[in-house]
Amino acid sequence: MLPDIGDPQMLFLANNISKMKQKTSLGSRIIEVHNSSSLFNGNAGSGTSNLRRYIIENDLLEAIVALPEKMFYNTDIGTFLWIVTNKKEEKRNQFGY
After folding, report:
1. Around 89, how many Cα atoms within 13 Å sit in the side-chain half-sphere?
2. Across 28-93, where does the E strand assignment appear?
3. Which of 52, 83, 78, 84 is nearest to 66 (CA)?
4. Tens-place pLDDT, residues 56-83
């Protein structure tokens, strides 16, 4: 599940997920700013792809929000907010528990 060392934003996300609080009523929420490579890089079976798969299969992904282009220093780089949580409201939980 470990992304390649050349993908620091996914390594940072994996590290933050590993540190999420499990034994609290509120759990943890992570919000990170990523470029579009987090969504599209990595072949099937690679560490980056497996991390995305882990996040989805464990129902950790709350949302990915696309930010407007040229928001950061007039660049055309696509920028996204990843919102990851381990304690969702029951109505937002894909598994219904």
Report:
1. 2
2. 29-35, 61-67, 79-85
3. 78
4. 999 899 999 998 887 777 778 888 999 9
CA dist 80 and 73 (Å) reads 15
What mean pLDDT is reported for the chain?
82
Among 4, 94, 88, which residue's Cα sits nearest to residue 45?
4
pLDDT surpassing 60 at residue 96: no
Exposure string over 43-59, b if 16+ CB within 10 A, otherwise e: eeeebbbbbbeebeeee
Query: Would you mind telling me the total number of residues written for the chain in this entry?
Result: 97
Sheet of 79-85: strand order equals 29-35, 79-85, 61-67
pLDDT of residue 87: 84
Nearest to 52 by CA among 88, 90, 80: 80
45 and 3 in contact (C-beta within 8 Å)?
Answer: no
